[in-house]
Design brief:
Number of strands: 2
Largest sheet: 2 strands, parallel
Number of helices: 4
Helix content: 40-55%
Strand content: 5-15%
Radius of gyration: 13 Å
Distance between the termini: 29 Å
Structural class: mainly alpha
Number of domains: 1
Shape: flat
Length: about 70
């Protein structure tokens, strides 16, 4: 499933089809391992590479906390 996702663009309706839980896809614009042009992320991190939790931990933590808060409110 991971390689299938990595090499074709995700369609918005697939989020519901493939996963039965809400998802948040965060992607770096300079990810050479899984190129951003092959996906449609919810959030793009400018100049971010493949290891966003290591290179942009504050941004990732803030985004995931906000996402979790939104889930708790619904």
């Amino acid at each position: 499933m991971m390689f299938h996702w990595a090499y074709r663009r995700r369609q918005p309706e697939e989020n519901v089809e493939l996963f039965d839980k809400p998802t948040l896809q965060i992607h770096g614009t300079r990810d050479w391992l899984l190129p951003i042009r092959r996906t449609s992320p919810d959030i793009r991190i400018a100049d971010g590479g493949h290891l966003l939790p290591i290179t942009h931990p504050d941004q990732i933590n803030e985004m995931t906390e906000r996402f979790a808060d939104e889930l708790r409110l619904n």
